[in-house]
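As a warm-up, study this chain.
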Amino acid sequence: MTSTTWQSLLEGRIDPAWAEEIDAFEAQLLLRKQEKIEERVFAETRLRRGVYGQRYDNGHRFDGYGTRELAFADVPKKGPETMWDAPGMQRIKLPYGGLSPEQIEVVADCAEEYSDAILHVTTRQDFQLHFVHIEDTPDLMRRLASVGVTTREACGNSVRNVTACPLAGVCHTEAFDVSPYAKALMLFLLGHPDVQDFGRKFKPAFSGCEHEACGLVQMHDAGYIARIKDGVRGFKVVVGGGLGTVPFQAEVLSEFTPVDEFLIEIQAIARIFARMGEKKNRNRARIKFLVSNLGIEEFRRLVELEKKTIPPDPRHTGLIENLPVTTAGPVRDPSALNGQVRPKGYEKWAATNTQTQRQDGYHVVTVNLPLGDLTSNQARGLADIARKYVGDNIRTSVEQNIVLRFVSDEDLPAMYDALTAIGLNEPGAGTIADITACPGTDTCKLGIASSRGLAGALREYLAAKADSTDPAVAAMSIKASGCFNSCGQHHIADIGFYGNSRGKGGRSVPHFQVILGGQRRENAAKYGLAVGAVPSKAVPDVIDTLTSKYVENRQDGESFQDWSVRVGKRGLRELITKHMEIPSFEDSPEFYTDWADGRQYSMGDHGVGECAGEVVSLFQIEVVRAETEVFDAQVALEENKDPDAAEALAYKAMLSAARSLVRMEYIDVSEDPDEIVQEWKTRFFDTGRFNDRFAGGKFGQYLLDRHADTAPSGSLSIAARYVEEAQLFVEAAVAADEKITTEKTAIAETVVDSSD
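Now compare it with the structure written out below.
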């Protein structure tokens, strides 16, 4: 249908303000197409409407679950030059993951008509549609808006989706249902003038419980934990958390903020962030850096002062007056399951995918989605099931599943049969086989290794032996990111992975850095640290080694996380060392391909040159020193609790990595830090040869910033940040060497070819 047809059809169903915003976006889109607006200006506009470009060099691939299928021969070797040349991605904002059957149906229809008929659930409870043509996005937005769904500020330097526990309102241990307050926050901040001038994105989250994992508030820019004090509802408020390349734990802003004050408080936080947050250096522009630089006491003082300057706004209290106890109620009366005949496969499914809720006679059902994907037909079938059994009680989860609440106990077998009919009856929700993964190299321009491919392979591998898996191992979590940015939340998993690359014999080999020691409970109370990079194809063996040693050596009742701490980084690294070796191409060519991709691996658009024989470069020999120093810095933090020693070792590791690069061209460079940094900066950083293109140059800036100020902080949290930065700098140095080596090999081959 044409835009005019859709506007006519949907007239009267769209909020007038939303309709005006979409019209304005469409006008800017047309101006950009006519080249009357620069792309850098239009980019922020489209991002704030949830419209992304996406990657094509690694293609639209079959992942083993019937989605993302396109022949490799049809995949361009390089991505399109502009948004007009090929489809991109549309993110759809779902506050606290809440959905109605009608909303699911509309998203399903849009996915089928504008995309590849796949709805993808993200780690922030959103939907994403891939392969959407940008010219279709205004109509898509109007159809979503007609059922109360927006894409506004789903991306860009704005307040992103407000997440919350999918069990909010039915949880046994919550203080109260946070869902209505999450929605109030979204409505208050959506398009608010005070949130339009941020240097970077801002992510809020809500949790009804202090000690569970549900809201993961400690890893958010602003987090709210429900509390009741003297009969008054309120929140413990934390600020300045975040994962990304360098994770920060949030700091406590307020032990108790009454609900009638929390909107003016977040407005004050937003105003301070907009006014004082970094704008020029995007690498330091998240609020976590502002809170860290000011200190929480000063930030708290500024918030209190700012609250006094904010003009009165009736929405501060109007949006939270007369809120319901829960966001929705049951559509069917509670009734016991009693002696009903259970369908084949029901017991195994029920053991992992159902749990009792606070209200007697009802269960929560988790629909386990492989890789967070479901088809449009499955989504429409799920909407029919929800309409019959639970009504609007539908949530997406940060584990990339869909949760149905208020399922009467009596209806569980019938619901299982209905889910089976549409292929959504897979058991294993919440188990080690229920793996979280970001899009990785499938569609993300930052992807280094195939996190989706890895997750798909591990899912099948672990599910196949689920019946014999130790219960404590079955309860573990695995999360994978395609790069260091932690979109797959690898820092808070029992076993986390993020993609990187290593080289051998002139060929690139996809790798994953192994992250251990993360903790989801206590709202993401502890972040894991890297213990070593292993070839991607060795990851299943790494998991087997770690879990078998855990079962063999654990003490009574000891969790994997506690066991990891007791074993220590040195012990954990020893366990995976045997898996870090890269076999030769001749012996194991499969190691030189990525998961779900039969082609020889390469980093993005870069080609891979052939090499006559194995050569170990000076860099490869010397960078081991830097990797050892990073590891020693992590040990200094974990075992010795010595922040000054950790910071010194982290700085030393960056210098060693930089010197390893410089010595490839200037063998006589000294050990003097000033000379190392100057030579590295001149030869690699200023020329763009330091290959942290995925990070926008910020990994190189880590060395420059640290070299400019080497004073010890005396803080374990700041030291942890420096150690993470050193780890990433060393990774970028390895990538730079790989890129340079590949380019030299290609030049040599060109000379040989031309001489023939």
